[in-house]
């Protein structure tokens, strides 16, 4: 199994298997086994979940942040997804939602969040909120994109 290293800045938080860790100085964590984690920069606050896809992001995020209590968010995801599939007509969003269903079904919530980060700007454009909400979307910087490609979850 590959080792995964994550560098954190002073004061940054990371959510690991339901626990919240905050580092007081720049540090590197090395994961030697499978782990479920979410970097602070990926976290969406409840007040930012103002559109259907953002709400779905928040639901999936809850699965990652508290894996021991993921039944309720999974049930909510299962109830929300069919309604969203009936609501949207944009092909990119519809195919993305079907991919989300498959990813969540396989237990790949981290990848589902990555997919949602691609879909949300499309939704913003459809809703005419492009300028207002893109800045509030959790973004991945270059190192996080590399982490997402090779990350464990």
From TrEMBL:
Single Gene Ontology MF annotation: mRNA 5'-UTR binding
Coiled-coil annotated residue ranges, if any: none
Assigned keywords, A-Z: Bacterial flagellum biogenesis, Cell projection, Cilium, Flagellum, Repressor, RNA-binding
Gene Ontology BP, a term: negative regulation of bacterial-type flagellum assembly
Cross-referenced InterPro entries: Flagellum_FlbT (IPR009967)
NCBIfam families per UniProt: PRK00794.1-1
Role: Has a post-transcriptional repressor function in flagellum biogenesis. Associates with the 5'-UTR of fljK mRNA and promotes its degradation.
HAMAP family: FlbT
Similarity comment: family membership: Belongs to the FlbT family.
Protein's name in the database: Probable flagellum biosynthesis repressor protein FlbT
Species whose genome carries this gene: Fulvimarina manganoxydans
